[in-house]
Amino acid sequence: MENVQYAEELVREFLVFRGFTNTLQAYEAELSTEIGRNFEVDKILDLVFSVYIPKYQLDRLLSIFSFLKQCFTSPADTVLYTALLKLEQSVLRYYVVNALKSGRQEKVIEFFSVGGSYLMQKREDWIAWFAIPYIKNPSLDPQFRMYFSKEWSDTLVLSFRNFLSGIFNGTRIPALMKISTEKNMIKCLKSDIKQLNNKLSELQALLEVKEVELSLLRRNDHSINSGHKNLLKITTAGSSVGGQAFSGVYEESSTSSTTVQGVNSQTLSSAKSRAEKLCDSSRMSNAENEQILVTEEDFPEVKVDFQETFLGHNSSISSCRFSASGSNIASSSTDGTVRIWTYDSSTPSSKNATIYCGAEVSALSWECRSDRLLLIGTANGGIKAWNADAKRVVCDLSTSKDFPSVLDLKCSPVDPVFVSAAASRRHGSTIFDRTGFASLTVWHMKTWKPLTVLPLGEDPPAITSLCFNHNGKILAASATDGMIHMFDMSAGLQITGWPAHDSPVSSVLFGPAETSIFSLGSDGKIFEWSLHNQGQIIWSRDCSSFR
């Protein structure tokens, strides 16, 4: 321990010498908490179970596990890291149980309020615990009874002791603890400084290379743009893969074409794979980087196995959706007509139909579990449920008079519910300017009655696009103010949100692994956001030139 104390004095002397007084104060405060407690197991256990938990010092309790993760474990060490995560979960549950036993229900509510976002990352382990503050006698509930027993708490303390004893051996103590002399310590510090200097030199050299590349890219900007106009044509029909369409609210197309092309699922999968490779080649480090320009050769040709032209619409197509099976397509036009058709001639066309809605159609959504029901939202606040088997409207709903425009509809992939995004009206030149305040309503698809209205705060901007995750527990919603909101459908509450765009968000869609979410802005910018680190951009692309 003498070497550790000597190292602490060296750090303190360095901070005083450089005049880093604020850092010195923070350093002294960290030392006073003694998280490591010189790696003495009994003292750390006493700190956790006799100080942090009884006195409800949640931030310091979390700092203990943050310290252990940083210093003694790594995600690469799967067994040890998983054990630490399970131990952390048990200790946090003990924190909740202790607060309930002491009659401090407000501390339990504060616990879920402060750590809600972190706990939602382990949703399956914590979903039932969000209800525990509101259960009258949780100690008698079969689901929580075990955690109130003395046997469980004793087992927890013993497990924590064994874990700390296992990691506080000579093989896992940080390198600073093993320095035996002042000479070795100084040598180690000099080696670290040398490595940092080498890294700095490499980064500077890399920066110079990037500046040269950027200069060359700007010189060729004009020649690239000249061949850039015919690279991609965006139609009013949204692209769909696996029954999910990445399209939301957007400006009406000025084109009068009503041609819709279909390709089979194998071709879609192949095109998606090639598109992902293309996106990887255009990855940017952050949203502020220069737009990456591509040439015509960078877009792979999509092989069309067959092509059919549907000529049933008499005005511009406003939206297009594949059914759950991918066999049927619903398309709508600005004249209030919806048509259901089958693009594959080998598939029976019994579901083909024409639906006259009497108002401009603004949203379409198929039931996720079958091809039976199609929901249709109109600009005058109407929601129609079309039974594709019976070829008739089975329900005709209306939103409230305060929110007469339906902007999007989305069916849950699991439960018999759907969510409608409606908005009030106001004067404006664009579709976004004409939308006012938002309303999100959850409807039951058996009773066709509203279940609840999701909270959005006071005078919220209009919601433009909705998307469920795979189990229907999380709902993502984008808004005209550039925000992305996330809702817990079980609790009916908003759990998080962040500003995503400087312009209205046209569409949102969960990533394939659902560890990220994509957003498309009306300005043509596409972002991929991390769901583990809120507000962090994983990938971005500026496609404004394709609008």
From TrEMBL:
Residues 459-508 form the Anaphase-promoting complex subunit 4-like WD40 domain. Residues 62-168 form the ARMC9 CTLH-like domain. The keyword Coiled coil applies. The keyword RNA-binding does not apply. SUPFAM superfamilies: WD40 repeat-like. Residues 179-220 form a coiled coil. It comes from the Eukaryota. WD repeats lie at residues 310-351, 498-531. Gene3D superfamilies: YVTN repeat-like/Quinoprotein amine dehydrogenase. PROSITE patterns: WD_REPEATS_2, WD_REPEATS_REGION. InterPro entries: Apc4-like_WD40_dom, ARMC9_CTLH-like_dom, WD40/YVTN_repeat-like_dom_sf, WD40_repeat_dom_sf, WD40_rpt. Keywords: Coiled coil, WD repeat. This is Anaphase-promoting complex subunit 4 WD40 domain-containing protein. It comes from Triticum urartu.
